[in-house]
Design brief:
The chain is an all-alpha fold and 127 residues long. It contains six helices and no strands. The longest helix has 21 residues. It starts with a helix and ends in a 13-residue tail after the last helix.
Length: 127
């Protein structure tokens, strides 16, 4: 795997590790995540992980492991179905997460997900 692809996957690994989304199923989770990485673009997977995280935020305990990835995969499939039903001019998916929210939740630059032309205010500096 080339360095560029590894760096892009690091963003997903960062989201997973930040919220311990793999739970106690690290090997199975990694395998299921690899299957998603083979089928969907990295930016959509990032967004689906964050969407799923936000959707399950109030669930106690927080959804983790393969069940979490199953829900993220459902989101990816919903976007895929939505894309098939829309014109080619329409945006590829609709997300309830804004670029600023994405940045606040992940600590990552939202440009690879939303495009470089999306204005994002810098994160607040705490003193």
């Amino acid at each position: 795997m080339e360095i560029g692809a590894q760096l892009k996957r690091q963003r997903i690994k960062h989201i997973v590790s930040s919220y311990q989304l793999d739970g106690d199923e690290t090997e199975m989770f990694d395998h299921a995540l690899e299957l998603l990485l083979d089928c969907y673009p990295l930016p959509l997977i990032e967004l689906a992980l964050v969407e799923t995280l936000v959707d399950s935020w109030l669930q106690i305990p927080l959804l983790r492991g393969c069940k979490f990835l199953d829900k993220a995969h459902e989101q990816l499939q919903a976007w895929e179905n939505q894309t098939l039903q829309q014109d080619s001019v329409a945006p590829p998916c609709t997300s309830a997460i804004s670029p600023e929210q994405f940045q606040q939740i992940t600590g990552l630059d939202p440009a690879p997900i939303y495009g470089a032309d999306q204005p994002v205010s810098p994160p607040p500096i705490h003193s």
